[in-house]
Design goal:
The protein has about 325 residues and is an alpha/beta fold. The chain has eleven helices and nine strands. Strand 1, helix 2 and strand 2 form a beta-alpha-beta unit. The chain binds N-carbamoyl-L-aspartate.
Length: about 325
């Protein structure tokens, strides 16, 4: 493994498989234990540096670090010196001076984590940067697919919606390609990025044609907060062409699953009955996020220490 996790492309097939296997092992250990904590990262400090709103990802990283007994500092841009004009570099150097071993960063600027990694001696983990990448989301999605369907290689994965603004889509395409899945992106032409033809996947504008061939359907939120102009005629028109409703779900094969990274807009990209239905993995994805982030923190920070320590260490 590299020292930082900045992009899903940082992970080789061996690295990604190691993260997924370690996450499986950690999930079993925490399930079995009466006390959910492992001593593995005792004495280490993890800083959560969030410059953008987040519910799931921040709490998931916090819980993951705490389950490994690390000390956690939650740092949000509001109320910090960042709002007084301090640069990202100075903030990072301050945190490092306090002895942080890993910085988990979310920022609206694509490239912020890469930038940060140039100044920081510890590990930098990208928790979502602008429209660029969100590698731990892709890892938890892959983990969920493997858990539900038993494999990733050869799966037909369809990712639907606002690909243009989605760091989740970009990281998923890269990781799933490494893991041997076959990805198709479905979106209106206005919500596909320029240069998508260079990505290792297919594209389509026709959801109904792709659904019956899919093993996994991953729905994405339309990220209005990143949109200046109108990218589609109306919410209703979007839902009609690209929303996953009950009728569309009936065209899926028996074992196909429905995923969503959250936060979802019920009734727009996904019908409530579908979000809460048996094929939906949405709640599992959140739970799996903790195990996968534990694995990432452990592998980046645990170094040469024995695999997974026992309580009497
Ligand atoms: C996503 C994100 O922030 O990139 N959510 C997440 O991390 N679970 C997707 C989104 O905001 O729609």
């Amino acid at each position: 493994m590299k020292r930082h996790l900045l992009s899903a492309a940082d992970l080789t097939l061996e690295d990604a498989t190691l993260v997924l296997d370690t996450a499986t092992e950690l999930a079993q250990l925490t399930e079995r234990a009466t006390v959910k904590k492992l001593p593995t990262l005792r004495g280490r400090t993890v800083v959560n540096l969030f410059f953008e709103d987040s519910t799931r990802t921040r709490t998931s990283f916090e819980l993951a670090a705490k389950r490994l007994s690390a000390d956690v500092i939650n740092f949000s841009a509001k109320g910090s010196s960042v709002s007084k004009g301090e640069t990202l570099k100075d903030t990072a150097l301050t945190l490092e001076a306090m002895g942080s071993d890993a910085v988990v960063v979310r920022h609206s600027w694509s490239g912020a984590p890469v930038n940060l990694s140039r100044f920081i001696r510890g590990s930098v983990i990208n928790a979502g940067d602008g429209t660029h990448e969100h590698p731990t989301q892709a890892l938890l999605d892959a983990y969920t697919m493997r858990q539900r369907l038993g494999r990733i290689e050869g799966l037909k994965v369809t990712i639907v919606g606002d690909i243009l603004h989605s760091r989740v889509a970009r990281s998923n395409v890269l990781l799933l390609h490494t893991l041997g899945a076959d990805v198709t992106l479905v979106a209106p032409p206005t919500l596909l990025p320029v240069g998508v033809d260079q990505w290792p996947c297919q594209t389509s504008y026709d959801l109904d044609a792709v659904l019956p061939k899919s093993d996994v359907v991953m729905m994405l939120r339309v990220q209005r907060e990143r949109m200046g102009a109108a990218y589609f005629p109306s919410t209703r028109e979007y839902a009609r062409r690209y929303g996953l409703d009950v009728r569309r779900v009936q065209t899926l094969s028996d074992d196909a699953i429905v995923m969503h990274p959250g936060p979802m807009v019920r009734g727009m990209e996904i019908a409530p009955e579908v979000a809460d239905g048996v094929r939906s993995t949405i709640v599992e994805q959140v739970a799996n996020g903790v195990s996968v982030r534990m694995a990432v923190l452990y592998l980046l920070l645990g170094g040469a220490e024995p695999a997974i320590g026992s309580d009497d260490q």
